[in-house]
């Protein structure tokens, strides 16, 4: 974390001696013990040049205090505010998004915790927990809970269940947590905390952990063993492959003539980017990237064919269509990647994944292992084999052609009489970088932009592309940008966000100003939910309730929103620009600014990049009075029948590529 931005009292934390220390124990409240334990956890530094060094596992704790956590956790965090910084936020869901983004930007090696009161503070965490669960990202959630004693029952904000007195609002977090525990006695921490750390740092188990903390238990004291709080360097757990699974993968690859690699987020999280590049180059295998895996290979690598799937490049999708073997590394193989399980149905699939649940998808031959630990022995064992040379040459040419197309799409001169669309804005952002190969981190999450960025963003190094698309969560963008900036303060973090997502969650602009964590936020204003509006019409429906012009309105009509004025009210610098040329000039001012800088620009809601794409299954109503719906349903049924017959589905004009 960017520690220099945390302007907190620098006086040393007071020691709290107890009589039990001489006997190897220390009397602490549950909250004090929990915070002290978190502060003692370390992880080896990511920089190989600092061999043997370590840094805090937890970069800090985001906190919004209320009656469920201010007296217990709040007091404990104050005592340890120097070694475990506390950051104030403005929305519980947003601060959890920031914590998740922090972990993503650190490739899951470092993380943050989040604490809330009971009631709405806790339930506001549910969406963020689901996002972390879907994306396999670590975050520690510490919501306050109701009294174990039940003496003041029901307390303010308590959710009462008429059939189970032990249920609280925090039980809503159970299905979206990888590990959940309710701490009803201080001694439980001795088991619960090591389990929590293991889940948070295990490549196969990784995801959100919830420790619900009843108010009275937070304040209850107990004699904890001093040894429990000794500093500990945590070693993230990553499974090594079994020999028989590597043998099977080698045998299958040696039979392949037209192999392809699908690089997922596990390549980045497993530190396997160099291994991937060496493996692909050695054996002439083209690489396509998922949303989570983009930046695993440099954008200009000769074998990087670009994005895959519904939001994919024509190069990657055409090769996937013809591949006879797909090596899926560290990917969940969700529907956008596989074209709703139609993109590479003809290929044998090998799934390399730390989580066997993911590795078995698409009826794959599973290699249950972290990406690097599997790629290194595969590289050694495949000596003497190579993909068909014609296939490799085709892939390299397709990749070259696509890079040329990307350059054209993002450098087309903009006419003043035509509104720009996302590709024009992406090009302006990348041209504004002072480096020939951008070192910026782009952050996005939902709407049209993830499709355009997946195709068009040029990621020069691992982590330069930070798009949350597992949960496609509107509102993640600005909060996620803050987390990425706290993790990587030396890099420019550029949040690209539509007007819909901006309006859904923007409060952490104020937090970014308060923390000195500068963001550049580019708001693309198409006056509504343009992505879903196109999908709606592609499914045969009339435009309805998505764009401002198609919504129910009162006598004053739809508001004319001044995003720049709003951002300035939150403490940021901001301006609205009229065209792409003005955007480029504004971006230079933003890069030179001393605080978060918001730039808004009007964009076309209907235009998207035509190149690439693949079918995506969106169920169309079977019965409708609208002829357009009936036509869309007929097209949908044609695709369903083709999938049943094992036929591939290129992109079409119906719901297949409406999200592009």
UniProtKB/TrEMBL annotation:
Belongs to the TPP enzyme family. One of its GO terms (molecular function) is 3D-(3,5/4)-trihydroxycyclohexane-1,2-dione hydrolase activity. InterPro entries: DHS-like_NAD/FAD-binding_dom, Myo_inos_IolD, THDP-binding, Thiamin_PyroP_enz_cen_dom, Thiamin_PyroP_enz_TPP-bd_dom, TPP-bd_CS, TPP_enz, TPP_enzyme_TPP-bd. Residues 446-600 form the Thiamine pyrophosphate enzyme TPP-binding domain. This is 3D-(3,5/4)-trihydroxycyclohexane-1,2-dione acylhydrolase (Decyclizing). Its EC number is 3.7.1.22. It comes from Paraburkholderia acidicola. CDD domains: TPP_IolD, TPP_PYR_POX_like. Keywords: Hydrolase, Thiamine pyrophosphate. SUPFAM superfamilies: DHS-like NAD/FAD-binding domain, Thiamin diphosphate-binding fold (THDP-binding). Residues 70-158 form the Thiamine pyrophosphate enzyme N-terminal TPP-binding domain. Residues 246-377 form the Thiamine pyrophosphate enzyme central domain. Residues 641-660 are annotated as: Disordered.
